[in-house]
Amino acid sequence: MMHLLSIEWLKLKRLNTLKVILIVYALLLPFIFYTLSLMNVYGTIYDESIYVFPDVYHYVTYISSYFNLILGVIVVVFTLNELKFRTQRQNMIDGLSKKQIILSKFYVITLMSVAITLYTFLIAVCFAFANGGTDIFEGIRYIGFYLISTFGYFIFAFFLANLLKNPSLAIVFYLLSTFLEGIIGLFAKDYAQFFPLSTFGNLIPLPIIPDGFEYAMTEIQRAGLGFVYVLIFMLLSYWVLKKRDV
Amino acid sequence: MSLDVKERMVFGILGPNGSGKTTTLGMLLGVINPQSGTYSWFDNGTKDANRKRIGSLLETPNFYPYLTAVQNLEISAKIKGVSNPSEEISEVLKTVDLFARKDSKFSTYSLGMKQRLAIAATLLGDPEVLVFDEPTNGLDPQGIAEIRELIIDIGKKGKTILIASHILDEIEKVCSHCAILKEGNLVRTGTISEIIGNQESTLIKLSTVNLEDIKKCIDDDSGISLYKDLGDKIVISVSKERNTSEINKYFFDKGIVLSELSVYNESLENQFLEIIKKS
Questions:
Q1: Can you list the domains of chain B with their CATH numbers?
Q2: Which residue of A has its CA nearest to B67?
Q3: B78 touches chain A (CB under 8 A)
């Protein structure tokens, strides 16, 4: 694992697109929460408790999850760079197996999801302490859900990139897929909440009306299903690559 | 098609564009899934790790454009598990004469430099087998000569080399053995001299006052055939056993005095085309 990650690190550490997007994200996220707190958007419907534990986790992860959709684009970019430069082919010729090709990106995505989750966690904690919060572990389960949700969106982006092979097509499909899934869901209302993107999204429901929707599964079950989808998209990515000439 | 490449051979795969050279090598290197058939490296089957013992340049130089030569080679070296990368990278860059530009981004390289960097990459880790697909593609005449020298040198060091090309001259200059492909089928295989030297017929160039006289005699005779009409001269094809004096006597007996009679050497390129055409 460390071997594959160190190879990926050599490729990614000098990829400027990635650096710029991540830096903008890192600067923008705290700024947005600061601005929101000044505007007191939720204050009118939701009381001050969203700024302290336990609700702060739910609130912060919910807002941050919108950014995951955008960060998924990075996944598409660094996956399809390897096709554009034909370096996926070269990496294989140099001795990597198709399994290692998939695994090395999987490790990067895992690490990226963990890093983003930790960063979000840090923002939530800072926010809560600044507003007089005390018990850091209260409501922390949302950080766990957020990790699976983030991981899910990224792996889905990775799968689309592998399947479609074309960056613009993959990005457009990725950004539209939530809507597309919603449309399909209209025809299968009973099952819509079990669809992959709904599963990832429902892990962190809208904070104002957390109980406004009847879920067939408990939070833990939803997290479990999300994890199953992560594995499915991974295996599908491997299967797509396995069948293909690179 | 079935090929067996032994240790220390410099083996050429020759064929026109689209004959399946790159596809064949791509299958051997695990990037193209064969519909049927098998291959085995080092008597060790199709394991992915085998490729770490092979240095390959397939079709195009594939590198990260935003990285420098050294940074690109670091990635290859890491995948191959090279023990002392920085030393080896400097060494291979010197071999292909790119050391002065080692810290320039790949995207700033000319086509020839890209090709040379790809050859440098194949040398990393001192592999037992080298696979070159059109290694002189995009190089200027001097570059072509240098790369051929380099490949000949590597061959002398006892490495096994597989080289694909559509340029017969290239194969003839560097290879010991060769296979000719056409439309995915093996047309011929053997040593270079077997393939290039072993023509069934000799070509002879003739000239006389009236070429029509020669043509008439050719029609009558079964052992001689018209190969090519050069306008002021005629090239005939005769069986290998017959020599020029015999031909001269033959025409003299027919009442034709030849003003020119010489063995005609087709360019190697044309011989290759002949082999392809005949098959």
A1: 10-196 (3.40.50.300), 199-278 (3.30.70.250)
A2: A14
A3: yes
- Share above pLDDT 70 across residues of chain A, in percent, rounded to a whole number: 93
B-interface mutation test, from A93, A100, A239, A245, most B Cβ less than 10 A away:
A93
Interface contact A69, partner B, CB < 8 A: no
How far is residue A110 from each of residues A1, A82, A141, measured CA to CA in Å?
A: 12, 19, 19
Select from B104, B119, B7 the least CA-distant residue to B61.
B119
ipTM exceeding cut-off 0.95 for this assembly: no
Give the chain A residue nearest B107 (alpha carbons): A85
Question: What separation in angstroms does the CA of A76 have from each of A67, A115, A168, B119?
Answer: 15, 18, 9, 30
Contact B62 A246 (CB under 8 A): no
* Contact check, Cβ <8 Å, B75/A100: no
Residue bearing the bigger pLDDT, A141 or B216: A141
Q: State the residue for tokens 């290039």.
A: B196
- The full set of domain ranges for chain A reads 2-243
Answer whether A16 touches B (CB < 8 Å): yes
A2 touches chain B (CB under 8 A): no
The model carries a pTM of: 0.84
pLDDT digits (tens, 9 = 90+) for A164-197: 999 999 999 999 998 899 899 888 888 888 999 9
Read off the pLDDT of residues B145-196 as tens digits, 9 standing for 90 and up: 888 888 898 888 889 999 998 887 788 888 989 898 888 888 888 887 777 6
User: Structure tokens of A147?
Assistant: 């990790």
